[in-house]
Every structure is written in C-alpha cells, then in structure tokens.
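Hello again, I could really use a second opinion on something today. I owe you a coffee for this, so here goes:
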Amino acid sequence: MMDKVKILVVEDEFVTGLEIRARLEDLGYEVLDILDTGEEAVEKAGVMHPDIMIMDITLKGVMTGIEAADLIRRQYRIPIIYLTAHSDEATVQKAVHSEPFGYLIKPLEERALHTTIRMALYKHEMDKALIESEKRYRAIAELAEDSIFVLDNNHNILFLNTHAKKFFGQEQDLVSPVPLGSFIPASLLDTLQEQIKTVFEFGNSLRVTHNFTYHDEEIWLDSTIVPVITPDGVIQVIGQLHDISMMVRIEKEVEKKGLVQIEHNMEQFQILNDRIRNPLAIIMSLASMFETKEGDEIIEQVKRIDNLVTQLDQGWIQSDAVRNFLLKHYGHGKIAE
C-alpha cells in the first residue's frame, strides 16, 4: 500500500485496545488513536477524518457504540466496523439497522480482522462511486426537458425531476416517497399505472402514447417505462414522459388543411362537369342541322369530349364516395347529395 490506511479505534477496555492497535500495526495499518466513549468518537471522527473506524458496541459514557456510529455515518460518512463480545440475535439486529460495514466478535482473529477491514474499505469505495454516479444521473435528469421519475414496486415516487414538478404542479421537493397518484392527474393515472404494473411484472421496457385532458386541455404524452435493478437487488422503474401535444396539434392542422383541399377539388370537378356539358349540347345540335363533312367531323370531336366528360362523371361519383368516407372517419366534408 502506498498510503497507510488510517484507523480510529473506539474500545472501552484498555488492554483490548492496546491489543487491537498492535494487531492493526502488524498488518500495516496506521492507528490514529484509541478512544473509550461514543461522545469522544463522534468529536474526533470529525477532526481526524480516519479512513475507517473500529467501534465497540458497549462503551463508557451515555452514548452506545451503535448510537455513535449512526451519528458518524450520517455526519461524516466514515465506514465503521462493529466490535463486540456478544453475538446474540438482539445485539446483531441492533447493529444491522445502523448499516455497519462489518462485524467482528471478540476475541479477534487476525485473518478475520484484516479481511473485514479490506472488505469494508472496498464496499465504502463502491458506495462513494455509486453516490457520485447517482449525482451525475440526477444532474442529467434535471437538464432534461421531459418529465422523469423513479418509482419503487409500490408505485411510490422516489425521484421527480424539475420539469415533472413544473408540468404537474408539484412545488415541494420530495423528502420521502409519495404515491404516484399524488401528482399524476386522474385522467392519466389508471393507464399509466397499468403500464408500470406490466413493466414490473414482465421486466421489459414499454413505450405508450397517452391521450388525456389536463386543466381543460387535451394532452398527448409519449411515455417510456424502463425497469432497473439497484446494486442491492431492488427492482425500480424509471419513467420518461415526453410531451408531444404541440406536434400532434400541428399534424392535425396539416391533416385538416389537406382535407379542405380535397373538398375544394371535388367541388371544382363538379363545376367543370356542368360547364362543359351545356356548351357541348349546343354544339351537337348546331352541327346536326347540316349534313356536311365539317359537321360530321365536329360531331365526332364532340362525342370524344363527351366521353371525357362521362369519365369525369364517373370520377365524381367516386369522389362522392371519398367525400362520405372523409366525413365518416375524419368528421370533415359535406354529405354527397
């Protein structure tokens, strides 16, 4: 090791403390001090900043080792290994709840001491890396222009980014998990919960577009729900809600304009049909009055034009069918007479 690991020992038995110091120094560690009260342990932890602490559960003074360790963990995030002469279940349970990095039983065995310290230091480094990683991901989530949230398997919100808070009118920061329904509007909640339930059940990502009314406004959200497993094996889901309302409204407007243009073209076909047929009838009558070569040629040309007009008539009938289809499925157009 290039730098010695600095260890602060908290042990109320003087002889045992000296023995622990000797063992640790033999293993290549640096012992900063040996303390015998929880109060002093909390104070010196903030001053000496050891890499790790070995804490006896039973200490002199008012504060127990577990109480001291809890304060040190929350204030300084220093990894702590418990030391005790007791291995009964009640003592172990009390120790476990304070999240120690290891647990040693007196009398100490050198190999167990060394292994426990190395494992505790490794776990502490991994925890720090995880915290830094979470900070980076939270920062990225805060920069996103989508609503992002994290849920536990009871559909409680563990994290909500700033955009989601603004979108759903959630002003206060989350200090503890809250139910999903506390910020998702009722018009969206049921379908979103079904989506989340499916992701938890099958473990696959799911993407769905939700259409609902919120504050008297029609909203479209493209939602993606992804399952994640935390390092301690807990299953959670991350949700991303992308507001596509503006895009949908634009598409609908473009679609509407296209239907208006189709309607206009249909009307023009009908007008063109009427305006051609009337002059053709007059020309045909005039040409039939004289049995001449020129008259016969005029009649032949009129017949060709009439055939074209007949095709327009058939097209207009088909257009009526199109018109009725558009009216039925898109709610736009006039009923064909």
Observations:
- The mean pLDDT is 81.
- The chain has three domains: 6-137, 145-243, 249-330.
- The first strand starts at residue 6 and ends at 10.
- Residues 1 and 52 are 15 Å apart (CA to CA).
